Structure formats: structure tokens, C-alpha cells
Amino acid sequence: MPRASAPTRRAPSSQLAPPAVRQPSPAPLLPQALLERLLAVAMERGGDFAEVYVERTHSTSVALEESRIKSAQTGLVQGVGVRVISGGKVGYAFSDDWDEPALLRAASTAAMIAQGQGSERSFPVSRVAVPSHYRVPTPLSDVEVSLKASLLTRADQAARAFDSRVTQVNGVYVDQTRRIAVANTEGRYSEDTQDLCRMSIQVVAQGKKNERSTGSYGGGGRVPFTHWATFPPEDVGREAARQAVATIGAVDCAAGPQTVVLAPGWSGILLHEAVGHGLEADFIRKGTSLFAGKLGEKVASELVTVIDDGTVSSGRGSINIDDEGTPGERKVLIENGVLKGYLYDTLNAKLMGQRSTGSGRRESFRHLPIPRMTNTFLAPGNHHPGDILKEVKRGLYCATFGGGQVDISNGNFVFEVSEAYQIEDGKLGRPVKNAILIGVGPEALKNVSRVGNDPQPDPGMGVCGKNGQSIPVGVGLPTVRIDNVTVGGTQVG
Amino acid sequence: MDYQKLAKKIVQRATKKGASQAEAFLEVGRQSSVRVREGQIEDLTQSTSKGVGLRVVVKGRLGFAFTSDFEPSGLDLLVDQALKLAQAAAPNKLNGLPGVKELGRFGDTGELYDAAVANLPGDWKVKAALEMEKAGRAEDSRVTTFNAVGAGDFVSEVYVASSEGMAGGYSGTYVYLFAMPVAAADGQLQKGYWLDYKRFLADLEPPESIGREATRRAVRMLGAKRVKTQQVPVLFDPLVTASFVSGVARAASGNAVHQQASMLASLQGKRLASEHVTLVDNGLLPRGLSTAPFDGEGVPTRRTPIIDRGVMSNFLYDAFTARKAKARPTGNAKRGYNAQPSIGTSNLYLEAGTTPPEQLIREVDRGFYVTSLLGHGANPVTGELSAGANGLWIENGELTHAVQEVTVAGNVLKMLQDMDGIGNDLQFRGGTVGAPTVRFRQLTLSGE
């Protein structure tokens, strides 16, 4: 069974225990008095709402190439963004200078969006305790770089030892320790520390006829460095090598509609693309998503229940608070095929008369928060994964995946399959190269005909891009069968 | 603040503390942007930014750190971090900053800075964005909303200093307009997207024309449907061609080639396409968005044909890879302050042909004119391309109905051989990659 050998870390939907409350850490990023001063300046022309966002991110990255550590680097990025909302208008200014005059300048620049009279109101804030969905006792930025480098060396050796046809191994390890503070004129002030790490390994293999193939695998999350003891880098290297070797000599993919079976895990990007983005409240409010105005309607097969959950323990997309200070939440977006809810940030929630779902996220202080996903997954069904495969006469088994993309207006989404096999009489046949799936979100989800009882989160390597902002996300899916999916390929007839 | 001096000072501090070589890459910028919605400002953003990256070599080991903290304590920490990281890296005798031979004389870039952009008043952007929205709506009543309509500008300064004698800087301006309308009919939504991005205000397309074109591109997609799975001639519009040739250029990275991890690895000097196909990377293109006197490590930029009249002629190199592959650096080290240089393109373009795009369409009996692709493009190692495609169907040389929910697939090397028409409409549309309309003899389209 050509399944990704990802060790299962956690079930995606079992994290419903009440979260522990973290003690506020003693040293704030900026003095509270200064935060309050900035809020007062931001409101001096009479805005409706103001917010100060403070960020300090330490990051490390290590790269391996040709079995050597090519480079290691660390960096510090820090800055403050001030947002003022006046009516439906937003003023935003940010600065990477921390000195008081620069910050006050940013606050008065953002204030200009409001055209009112001078005001000298004050806006006291008080510190709010935040939940704790991830525990990283030793910040990743404090871990010796040589330990991080050795993960890559170990993965490289394991990948090369896996098969003599492996010709190249490239690896990257990245982590960050990101501290954020958010204070707003509603009096809320919260801080969070968000550690995050990821390792990824790319392998090139070459067959007898010099045909090249590639494999790629990785993982991580909001986890302490000890994670790598239970998710060994050797497994990562071997899995990337296995994919590359398995796809040597793959046959051309047949073009046209087919029945497809998706392996569990990272295949969850299907949901992320097919429905997730289309449910983000900015697209809904502006009427640019094909899911706008469809609350309560059937948009998927009854087997489909989609959940976005920012509270998954140690999940890559998990957030104690979003980048507006709202606690992360678990939201049912689609229940038994019926559209139940959208993903709201503060601004869109205000304009639409709703409440924020803790979905206001941003890449950094250089960006405005916008509605985003966290960890998005499909609730498990009743089918045994083995039976799902057995029932398919002819089709395509999609084992590992690249990325995806969606056009939220016409709903077209694609989903790149990096390792796929023909299915013949319920069994896996030859590997197929260069497959891609395309569909229109709601139609594809109506064709979901089997949902496995084997939910699996991805190993922790998802990056989602929207409006030029990249953020970490998680996805998850059990084994799923979808009928009549258009498969892109080169072979006709 | 004199940033050139500051960069030099950081280098001196690093060498004093034990670096055998050191290089500082410093960026300073300010930007401002506006978006409008329904005749009103939606948001206004203004900012300043700065940062410096420090690369050091200590006994053949490379270290790198970056910071946006320019306080003396922040810069001290930067130097210490970079030196510390060098200890974690493996020694490699090829490590080293570009030396006197590689640095050399800078070519002529022409003007990079437009005072009209640097001093652009805030309400110019508001007015331009409002005009785009108005023109977009006026063009066709089926436009019901916009994802975004906006304008912005950006002024940046770059300084590089190194222990090997590099000392240089330049400043540049950028200004852009974009419109993303959504058209609706019969329960279908279709988006349009059009933009312009230039260094000089005078080069920028008028807002009204951006708004109108964005609407035309949204409206013409209404009624889109799947077509049958088949092999037909396929045309790429200039935006789609630009993403296609970017994929070819990624495979021309000297590092991928050296690692045998590129579809182009063994093809230098071989014919890839007809003699009409010339793909060029030109860091000195007049008024180009990516034009600069030197690359991310101070090496002079230049014009490098990747495919020259159909023949695979040159790969792209930074200094390290060039040393490794015993080639010459081509001035293609790309970076921001927060990353080390890696090989990338500057101004990349497929040279224009002589045929008007209308004629390329007219010569096709049945075919597919692709106006947008979904997905991440070709695999640079294998050349396999499979992507979702939207566009217009061609019957008897005429554009007919819109097409969606199909894919096109092929192999890039085969597609280059199959490129049988190149339009005379080369354009840099909103980026550093320029291309005309092109036609492929045959691609597999997957649909019903």
C-alpha cells in the first residue's frame, strides 16, 4: 500500500478538553502605558476602533545541499502596526522602529483615516488571559543551531541509504519564535508566544533510462524541539526517497473524468481549496465567492462535515489568539452537507453584524489582518479505507499531494497529485505521473461518495497564501472517494 | 542616516571580530497603498521599513543573520549571531564572497528613480483607484462587485558593502494600479484581473483603461463551461506565457543544473525550439522593474540569453554556484535583506515575434485560448506540466464561448519544440517577467 509513512501524532477532532489558561508572561513586548498612549493618538481624529499590534519574531533556517549544511541563518524582525477603523474605512500604518516618536508617528498616520474633531479620550486596556493549545517550554529560538542542522544530516543519510537510485537530497529546517501583543480600544490586551517549526526534504531519483522523478516530505508544528524524537528525521528522508523511487517509470496519466480515491492526511488541502477559501467572510461580504448567500443550503454530499479548528493541540495552524486578540475557535463550516457558517475576522464581522470566529490572521505587522483558515479537516465517516479501494473497478488512487489553488468566484480549484496509481479491480496498479484534479467546489463535494473512518492530520507543513500573505495552516482528511472528477493528464482515449 | 556608511561599519565590525570576509546588504523603503470600494476609501496603508543582512565567512564556514533593529545593541547582536552561525556550518573551500574579478564594473542601468513617483500625493492614488472602479463598472453592468481596486507606490534604497571591495547603492521607485472586478450572470461568478506596475509614472497605463480591461476580462468568462477531453492547438495569452517561461527559467538555475535536478541539465548547446524562440534574462533592461547595477552580492548585472534563437545557451549563476560549476557568475543572485542570495531571474522575457495575436487565433480551426492557469506550474526537474486552465474556445479562427474546469498538460521540453507561433505583443504585465501571446501545435486538454 503506497501510503505515506507519517507517524500519526494526534486525531484531529479529539481536542475538546477545556484548554488550560496560561499565566501572562512577566515582560510585555511594549509597556502597557505606551500601548494606551498609541491607542489614544490613533483615536485623536475620532475613529470608531483602534488596535495596536506588536510583533517580535526570531527565526532560524538551515539548508542542506549535496550532503553538506550549506548555510544556517537567524534573524530578528520586529515592528508595530496601528489600525484605525472609521465607518467602513481602515487606516493602517506600521513601523519597524520601536522608538516612541516613530510609533507615535505611525499612530497619527493611521488616525488620518477618520476626519473628525480632535479628541483627547483615553483608552485603558487590561490584560486578558489566553488559552494554551501549544506548549513549547524551551523556545525554539533558544535551541542550538547545530542540533537543528543535525536533523537535516540524519534525513539526508536515511534518504540516500534508502535506494541507490536517489541522486539528490535537499533539505530545509525552519523555525520561529513569534511573540505578539494586541491591544484595542475595546479594552482588550492579550499576548501570545507562537513557536513553530518545519523540516522538509526534497529528493531526486534517476531511473535506468535517466528519467528523473521527485519526492518531497516534511513535518513539524507548534511543537517543542523534542518533537523530532517522536517524528524522526530519518522517517522524513526515507518517505521523500520512497516517493521519488516509487514514481520512476510512472506512466502518463489518462485525461478525463475518473473515480478517485484520496489517501488520508495532506489530501485535506482539497477542502482548503474547494470550500475553505470560499467561506472567508471578506469574499462573502463583497459577494465575490460562489458560497455567498448560501447559508443553510446543501453544498456537499451528506457525508461531508467540514471543521476549521484553531484549537487543535500543537497544530501547525493552531492559535491561542488570532492576530486581533480573539481566541482561536473550533467552527463547523459544513455539517452533513449543509453550509453552517463562515470564517470572520473583526472588521468583516462588524460590517456584517456577526461576531469574530477568531479567524483574523496576518503574516506579520506589515499586513492587515484578514479572514483565514487555521486547521481545516473533514470529520471521519464509517467506511473502512480498505473497502473504499476494493469497491473501485477503475480509477485513480492519489497517494501524495503537491499543492492546490482556487478561484473563489467561479469555484474552480486544482489539486496537484505528486504520487498516484491506477486502480484496477480494487487493486493498485502502475504509478501515474503528472496528475492533477480539477473541479468546482460544491459540485466536487456533492460527488463525495465514501468517507473513511481513518482521520489523519497532515504532518505539519502547510503554508497558505492569500492577498500576498503567507501563514501556517493545517489540514486533514480521512480516506475519501470522489466520483466523476476531471483528472488532468496527457493520454486521451 | 548615511546607510552606505552604516553598511561599511557593520562589515568592519564583523572583520574585526574574526570574520575573514563579510558583506552587509541593507534595504530601506517606504510604501503607501490605497484600496477603494463603492466610491469610498476602503483602506489606506503607509509604512517605512528597513533591514540589514550580514554574511560572514570564517575559515571557509558561512554564517548569516539579519535584523530590522538598527540600534547599536541590535547591530552588535547581528554580528555576534552571524559569527556564531558560521561555527554551525560545514567548511567548504568554495565558500567566499565575490572577489575583485567577479565584482567588476557596473553596466549602464539608465534611470531607476522617478521623482514624480517618490513625491506622488496620497490623493492621486485615491483618485486613480476611484477612476478604475468607475470605469470598470461603466464598461459592463454585469460587474456586480470587486474583490479589490487599488493603487500604490514604493520607494526603495539598496546598499551593499563587503570586505572584498564592494561598495554600492541605488534607489528606485515603483507605482502600480490593479483592478479585480467580479461579473455575475445566470448564477455564475467570474473574476477579472488587470494591472500595471512600472518604475515611472509616465509609463503607467491610465487608470480608466485598467478598469475597463479588467471588466472585459471578467465579462468574457461568463457562461464558461467544460469542453470534451481532446488534443488541440493551444494559445497562451501574455500573462500565461509569462508564467510558462518563468518555469523554464527556474530550470535554468545553475544550481539545479549542477545538481542534475533540472530538465535542462544536459541540454546546453542543444536545440530546444525553433529559431524564433529567444528567452532572455536582462538585468540592465531600460526602465525594467528588476533593473539594477548589481545583484544581491554586488556582481554586475548583464543580459544573458537563456534560449538563444532556439538553442539552450546559458544557465544563470550566483558567485558560489559559478565557482562550484566552474562557470562565470551572471549577476543573478537575488535576495532581500532577510535571506541569503539564491539564483533567480531579473527582467526575464520571451522576445516578441512578428505575428499579431489575432492572426495566431485566426489560423486555428478548433483550439483553446488560455487566459489563466491554476496550480504551481511545471516541475522544473522533470518538465511535467499539468495545470487547471480558464480561457476561450476557438472555432474557425474565432473566439467563441468561455471555458473553465479543464486542465492542460504536457512536457515543457516538448511544448518548446511545439511552439509554432509567437505574437508581436510582448508585455511586462505587472511583474518582472514579460512575454507575448504564444501558440503550441498541440496540448492535451482534459475536460468532460
Give a written overview of the molecule.
The complex is a heterodimer of chains A (493) and B (448). Chain A is an alpha+beta fold. Helices cover 19% and strands 39% of the residues of chain A. Chain A folds into 2 domains: 24-246, PmbA/TldD fold, CATH 3.30.2290; 251-488, no CATH class. Chain A is built from 10 helices and 25 strands. In chain A, strands 2, 3, 4, 5, 7, 8 and 9 form a 7-stranded mixed beta sheet that branches. Chain A has a 6-stranded mixed beta sheet with strand order 14-13-12-17-24-23. The model of chain A is unreliable at 1-24 (pLDDT under 50). Chain B has 448 residues and is α+β, with helices and mostly antiparallel strands. Chain B has 2 domains: 3-219, PmbA/TldD fold (2-Layer Sandwich), CATH 3.30.2290; 224-448, no CATH class. In chain B, strands 1, 2, 3, 4, 5, 6 and 7 form a 7-stranded antiparallel beta sheet that branches. In chain B, strands 11-10-9-14-20-19 form a 6-stranded mixed beta sheet, with helices on one face. Chain B has a 5-stranded mixed β-barrel with strand order 8-15-16-17-21. Chains A and B meet through strand 3, strand 4, helix 3, strand 7 and strand 9 of A and strand 2, strand 3, helix 2, strand 4 and strand 6 of B.
> Radius of gyration of chain B from the CA trace?
24 Å
Low-confidence stretches of chain A: 1-24
Tally of helical segments of chain B: 11
Gross morphology of chain B is globular
Largest sheet of chain A: 7 strands, mixed
Kindly state the mean pLDDT of chain A as a whole number?
92
**Alpha-beta content class of chain A:** alpha+beta
Find the structural class of chain B using helix and strand composition.
Answer: alpha+beta
Q: How many DSSP E strands of chain B?
A: 21
The quaternary state of the protein chains shown equals heterodimer
Task: Please report the distance between the alpha carbons of the first and last residues of chain A.
Answer: 28 Å
- Looking at the structure, what is the overall shape of chain A? globular
Count of the separate structural domains of chain A: 2
Distance between the termini of chain B: 63 Å
Can you summarize the main beta sheet of chain B?
7 strands, antiparallel
Report the sheet-strand fraction of chain B.
Answer: 35-45%
Please give the share of residues in helix of chain A. 10-25%
